[in-house]
Amino acid sequence: MLRLVVMVSGSGTNFADLLSRTQTGEVPAQIVAVGADRECAGLDYAREHGIPAFVEPFAAPREAWNHRVVDQIEAHQPDLTILSGFMRLLAPAAVERLAPRLLNTHPAYLPEFPGAHAVRDALAAGATRTGASVIVVDAGVDTGPILARERIDIAADETEDHLHERIKVVERDLAARVITDIAGGALPLTAN
């Protein structure tokens, strides 16, 4: 069973879904800690469910903050760290310490629409399809090796919030599948 640390920045709905799947045995993993860069609903949910939670508020210099975040993560001895709605970029040195066992879920069909506003960017571009991806984090912005991705259609009158909620359903399924495949040895992780 894999030990997971999940990093969040907001509501933690993807984390909550993953927690449920680990508790039912669908995903052979245990979430050993949840971390964030600020207090948020995702941390509250973790605490309500008895999962250790930590906050490392962002502060300059960036390199020192990154070092502290990775120290907090490593203190829980995870097999994988999942960035699930975590809205801070980790510096290359931090990524290197965790690689290749640092994964990110992303609300777009990468390499299309990288960055923090993927759903908004897809709509602004007039795209008719987008999707969700799970990647190994590298030093770039959403440029790491793609472990899984899936497309969804965009409705003509779709709002950003509605589309994002539909993408989250796909993101959750992809994350569960990737973690399960890693746990079972079907998906080896390698750093590029």
Quick structural summary:
The protein has six helices and seven strands.
What keyword list fits this structure?
seven-stranded mixed beta sheet; single chain; 192 residues; Rossmann fold
End-to-end separation: 25 Å
CATH topology: Rossmann fold
Largest sheet: 7 strands, mixed
Report the uncertain regions. Answer: none
What's the tally of helices?
A: 6
| Sequence of secondary-structure elements | EHEHEHEHEHEEH
Oligomeric organization of the protein chains = single chain
Domain unit count: 1
Strand content: 15-25%
Main structural class: alpha/beta
CATH architecture name: 3-Layer(aba) Sandwich
Number of strands: 7
Q: Per the principal axes of the C-alpha atoms, what is the gross shape?
A: globular
Average pLDDT confidence is 95
- Taking all Cα atoms into account, the compactness measure Rg is 16 Å
Pathway: Purine metabolism; IMP biosynthesis via de novo pathway; N(2)-formyl-N(1)-(5-phospho-D-ribosyl)glycinamide from N(1)-(5-phospho-D-ribosyl)glycinamide (10-formyl THF route): step 1/1
Binding site for N(1)-(5-phospho-beta-D-ribosyl)glycinamide: 12-14
Keywords: Purine biosynthesis, Transferase
Site (Raises pKa of active site His): 142
